[in-house]
Amino acid sequence: MSGDLSGHHVAVLKGGLSSEREVSLVSGFECAKALRNVGARVTEVDAGRDLAQVLAALKPDVVFNALHGEWGEDGCVQGILETLDIPYSHCGVLASALAMDKAKSKAVLAAAGVAVPGGGLYDRFEAARDHVMAPPYVVKPNAEGSSVGVFLVFEGANRPPQELAQPEWTYGEEVMIEPYIAGMELAVAVMDGKAMAVTEIVPSTGFYDYEAKYGEGGSTHVVPARMPSEDYDRALRMAEAAHAALGCRGVTRSDFRYDPVKRLLVLLEVNTQPGMTPTSLVPEQAAHLGISFDRLVMWIVEDAYARGAAGGRAASRQAPG
């Protein structure tokens, strides 16, 4: 890492159209500030339907994609950037789309030998009528992140979440339902194919929902996680295997559940564009390894540019740093 992006124009995509717009605005703001700190010329872009036209006019050297959720994280924006021939951060079209679809990514991960929860996809109205499996279980949208639209159905619950059948439900007609695994919430960041650390997440609310992830005081993060060293190492290796199996690049974050009594460790999902807010897990793990936030963001941009140049993009431009 050279610590200098002087003279290079970076477009930071933030906001966007998904239910995770607000946290994306914060991620984008923080990353733009970090890039200015290392000398980059930064344009912040609140990504809308006119994104292709906006970027074609801006002609940035590289794009830092700080969008979260549908459209920004699921391969759609990546396709626009491929068409415009602009190097961009994080995963490509296929890996982004695959990781965003929980059912499909689980199938790929299971085939690669990564332990994942059971369960499957169900019609949301069917899931609202009656329990499709014995509680406790978790209901989540198949293609959303940041714990949006997630319900934990406890043992003894008389009926499933009725919100699933409401007209206000906007998270797709099918929902993923998985058995609830008691124990600890864990996260592992992977940078350049190598796992960074294991974070233990202790939510203040008892459930790691959207507010626990992004609200002030919503959760406590313990790095390194308090668990046996062999299970800690197993989480690191599983995150690396998942990153590779989905064809990811740059920085990702894998989320786990860990039952310390049964020593059961399962990977819930891989986030291809993890949050970069003041309370986010990836910057915390980087700091644990002695990597400042500015250096982390700079590496992501340099990695994106190097991959773009290697693929024939921006061949006439000087590489950052």
From TrEMBL:
Its EC number is 6.3.2.4. It holds the Pfam family Dala_Dala_lig_N. Transmembrane segments: none annotated. It is an enzyme of class 6 (ligase). Keywords: ATP-binding, Cell shape, Cell wall biogenesis/degradation, Cytoplasm, Ligase, Nucleotide-binding, Peptidoglycan synthesis. It catalyses: 2 D-alanine + ATP = D-alanyl-D-alanine + ADP + phosphate + H(+). Its cofactor is Mg(2+); Mn(2+). It is found in: Cytoplasm. Belongs to the D-alanine--D-alanine ligase family. PANTHER family: D-ALANINE--D-ALANINE LIGASE, D-ALANINE--D-ALANINE LIGASE B. This is D-alanine--D-alanine ligase. The lineage of its organism: Bacteria, Pseudomonadati, Pseudomonadota, Alphaproteobacteria, Caulobacterales.
